[in-house]
Amino acid sequence: MSTLEIRGLTASVAGKQILNGIDLTISSGEVHAVMGPNGDGKSTLSAVVMGKPGYTVTGGKVLLDGVDMLALPTWERAAAGLHLVMQYPTEVPGVTLDAVLTEALKDRGRSADVGSLASQLHTEAARINFDEKFLDRPLNVDLSGGEKKRNETLQLAVLKPKIAILDELDSGLDIDALRDCARRVMDATREDGLGALVITHYSRLLEELRPSRIHILVKGRIVESGGPELADVLERDGYAAFTPADSSSADAVSGDYLAGL
Amino acid sequence: MPVLTPDMVRSTGASWTEVRRAAAERAAVAPFPTTDAEHWRYSRIDELSLADFSPAAAPSTISGPTDHVTRIDGEGSAAPANLASLFDDSADASALELFAALNLANMDVIVVSVPANTVVSEPIVITHDFTESARAYFPRVVVDAGPNSEVTVVERFVSGDARILVVPALDVRTAQSARVRYLSINELGPASWLIGEQHSVGQRDSDTLLATVALGGDYSRVSTAARVVGQGGNTRQVALYFAGGTQMHDFRTLQEHAAPRTTSDLLFKGAVQDTAKSVYTGLIKIHKDAKGSSAFQTNRNLTLSHGAWAESVPNLDIETNDVKCSHASTVGPIDEEQLFYLESRGVRPDVAERLVVLGFFDEVLAQLPVGELAQPLRAKVAAKLNVGEKA
What we know:
- Chain A is α/β, with parallel strands linked by helices.
- Chain A has 9 helices and 12 strands.
- Chain A has a 6-stranded mixed beta sheet, with helices on both faces.
- In chain A, helix 6 (145-159) packs parallel to helix 7.
- In chain B, helix 4 (336-343) packs across helix 5 (349-365).
- Chain B is globular.
- Classes of the chains: A alpha/beta, B alpha/beta.
- At the A-B interface, helix 2, strand 7, helix 3 and strand 8 of A face helix 4 and helix 5 of B.
């Protein structure tokens, strides 16, 4: 059983405060969704947790099973069991999937998995309808949006992290690819006890990835957390009800609203 | 303008002796280049003292099929008339630049002459292993591919620790519908200088590939002029160059289109580490009557250390509107996003850097004329890379 705890996390980008105190806890086998309007900090959250350059943590903690992730370089966070499925996976010319996974597994001390990597890749590719011809391509180069996300999902399946953050898994891919990827992630939560933090701004994704908890991230804060029914509220009424700030009555409105759920 | 001159080597002579003598006269009066001249602008030419070197015969060995290979060594070989004709393009010996003249005056020539409709199926490999310090060497390779013939030539430059100057020349003539693949491999030692010139002329529907892998040398400079003079002709130029320590690699290229519907494609990829330097200067020149031609030029450079320096200077000279032309050039460190992507999978930063740099070069290695050489050359790049565990 593993647990990722995010406590009072604040962070800035280029001097601008984006995260204003995020609190989240997710454990093995769970699926949580973080939903919110674009530009309010969802992708920043995933970048900061993974240690992407250009983001400055100004306060708070990120603990995986009690170990301070913020003190570790990115690769050690990954080796410790954190994983990020990127919204826009980076193209890395000339570097193949098996080269990267070989190194990644070696650095985790999983030499047995290195030996069986080729067969794992074929099995996993078939499972998510990822054309085997893409296995030999340089990472993400000339792949369609759907193929890139299948590629990301394939890596997740082979690396078997404890907790994965899926940043906008649904952007840039068709409904078939979405279903293939989402189902594989759900399988991982059951088979490998993966904890999945799903970042999205559409509830469509949540028809496939069934979260037990939904957190609403607005202006750098989790303004509301609840069960799956929260997604239905969002679908019906949008984020406006959860947007504090500008109008003085906003807080009261959202408070009343949620009190009635 | 002696640099990037489109013509093949010129001489006045009809015999080798005359060619040499005319060139020697020219060399004796040719001005020593300075970095004030645009052609030598970023070079280290001011560090070179010709007096430190005495000419010597190029120690060259040839492997692979030798049916069509002729050597013309030393002084005054009686040249077959058809070979001498290779050099009679122009009578203007006075226009020869110093190093071109020095090569002609002292050259040891290897001629690969492939008759029409002949396919040489195995690569011809020429190795120059320069061992004696304080010597200057002047190898010249002539590839004369007859109509609809095909040949692959690999030329390797090796020198150990010897302090030498090598001034090589390459002449490629690709006749109608012929295919020439040429690969130059520079594995010179750290005390060697190379100042070379390459010229190719492609006739109608010909296909010429000029490839370079440069890892060695203290200062190494190659000027390449690839001309297409027959319609439908094509040239490709690819290069991998990687300088470390205090090395400098210096490339000048010309893609010249002098006939309609000709194509050229150039991909030069380099990296510099430590305090090494590299320069790429490239020109696409399209003549007025080269309508319907397309020319592409891409130069990408990785600077792997703060003290390393790379320069890229692309140029276009286009005299007709009916062309497709593009050039792209970049100089910079390894892409941070690429590193983050690999590290977020759990790959160590140093290993991630190695993967990205080797991946960067794979695009060139995949296009080398002799596929079997890609893997050993990749291993040499990996061994030279000052980051991460060595392969």
